[in-house]
Amino acid sequence: MSAEAKRIETAAEKALFGHFAAVPDNDPMYDLRASAFEVFRDAGLPHRRVEEWKYTDLRNLLKDVPPPAAPGNLDAARVAFEEDDPLADLAGSRIVFVNGHFVPSLSDMSEIADQVDFASLGRFLADGGAIFDRFDTIDPAEAPIFALNSAFMADGAVINIKQDIEKPIHIAHLFVGETAGLQTMRNLVSVDAGVSATVFETYHGPDDLAYHTNTVSQIHVSDGAHVRWIKLVEEGSATAHLGLTIPRIDGNAVFDPFTYTAGPALTRNEMRLTFAAPHSRSGIRGVTLVRGSDHADFTLVVDHAVPDCDSREYFKSVIDDEARAIFQGKIIVRPDAQRTDGQMMSQALLLDEGGEFDNKPELEIFADDVICAHGATCGQIDEDMLFFLRSRGIGEAEAEQLLVQAFVAEAVEEIGDEAIEQVLEARTRKWLGMAPEVE
Questions:
Q1: Of 301, 336, 289, 330, nearest to 430 (Cα)?
Q2: Can you give the pTM of this predicted structure?
């Protein structure tokens, strides 16, 4: 006779169970929430024996989870936004969430009101969430971030981009206050056929406050559309950020996402991209900057489900002190996806012997007429380059900063938009402790 071993619940899991027990059963979304949370309850937090999470053991890394965040102080949010808005001179419109709740008084979509339809997700949640039927979804059992997001989502941006827009739409997420909380957002974005647009997500919050962020963006790029999707994560030094992006790309379309991470103690950015129709392409790129004991994981799955699509994956990591960066990239080529071209590269720069970089590239190819490859490098600053700069009278610390900046810039410059590149290069200088460039 054998008894089934009972999983020992962690403090973080117990906290999540308690938080969900406080969700009222008359919530219009309760059935969907309960179904997703039951999947999570059965599986628990992912751990190192789950292959996709072998480098990011949430059972061990998450010591606790704060309760869902209350709306933040708007005056404090306004000050924080005005003091450090990376898109102050670039964005043509903005949608602002504070502690996971939409704030109309800080938002402004008037400039593009004719080109873009926008509504807060909170409105659709109150109506029962039929809006979700318009977007592809994934099995909560395969994605713990998605399951928890479905259980606790409080707000987000519902956007339909109908015409070309010249300036980026800025979706800003701010956390303010002195009490840690869990902010859970879901963005639903559709881009009509032939439309060109840029969406820029930012995440900011205070240092030394152990708040949590859980965010999911479901994106539908229609035939012939061209979309840039930039995500900038610069949250507090005690923050846990769990993010999932789910793009679906139709025919003859271009989707170019870029993820820039610098700040949180724990980050897991995950992207599951599907080519749903032929003759489309995607340049998936990113930069991760970690120091201290930071832990940052970028996990990518690119599903070539149809023929004649191209993907390029290019990621850079800079690792200082005893921090850890992870890149997991998988390209799947389905049996009918002939003439697929998929190329993946990740590069890491170690600034200290205590740092760690884990790289796990995967190719699953079930078609025979394809071009697919992957590569990875990991090393320290080139001593010859350092000597060259120092021989020109540049101090050692500044020379190292310049070399790190150049390393990161190789990925940033792939964006192909000078204004956005300047924004991200300025964030790199800030992380390195360099003075802003004088214009």
A1: 289
A2: 0.94
